[in-house]
Amino acid sequence: MSSLIKSIHRKLFTLISIAGFSAVMSSSVSAIGQTPDDIAARIAPIGNVCVAGEECEVASAAAVASNDGPRSGEAVYNQFCTACHSVGVAGAPKLGSASDWAPRVANGFDSLMSNAINGLNAMPPRGTCSTCSDDEIQAAIEYMLDNSK
């Protein structure tokens, strides 16, 4: 008889636990205010893979950037370069410091362009602007040089 009672107690405890957990979960979801649509929107993919030769639903960031026309050197600097070049992170030449730029300028502009496009030391390729065209990179370098004399 005691084994039958233990079995009933276990089953009853399990049922009460499941019912209590379900009640807690449903009240939590409604308390947070997340409907199934809210959850679907929250966990939706943030991008799509576009295969060359197939039609894509969303334009790439590079294509969108190119449609807006080239960004000015100042705009590129302010958005992508300032984090390192304003304070000299990891030896980056600082905007406004002619002495920081002098040895780099001595190597020629082509060297500056190559370093900016391919990366150098801690600087990643194209700085932090993967969508910048070569012309925009050049404009950013010219902006930094013009403001570091």
Reconstruct the topology from this structure.
Blueprint: H1 2-32, H2 36-42, H3 61-67, H4 73-85, H5 98-106, H6 109-118, H7 134-146
Give the C-alpha Rg: 29 Å
Mean pLDDT over all positions: 79
Q: What percent of residues adopt helix (DSSP H or I)?
A: 55-70%
The top level CATH class name of the largest domain = Mainly Alpha
Descriptive report:
This protein has 149 residues and is mostly helical. It folds into 2 domains: 2-34; 61-146, Cytochrome Bc1 Complex, Chain D, domain 2, CATH 1.10.760.10. 60% of the residues lie in helices and 0% in strands. The chain is built from 7 helices and no strands. It has helices spanning 2-32, 36-42, 61-67, 73-85, 98-106, 109-118, 134-146. The longest helix is centred in the first third of the chain and has 31 residues, at 2-32. Residues 59-66 have low confidence and may be disordered. One of its GO terms (molecular function) is heme binding.
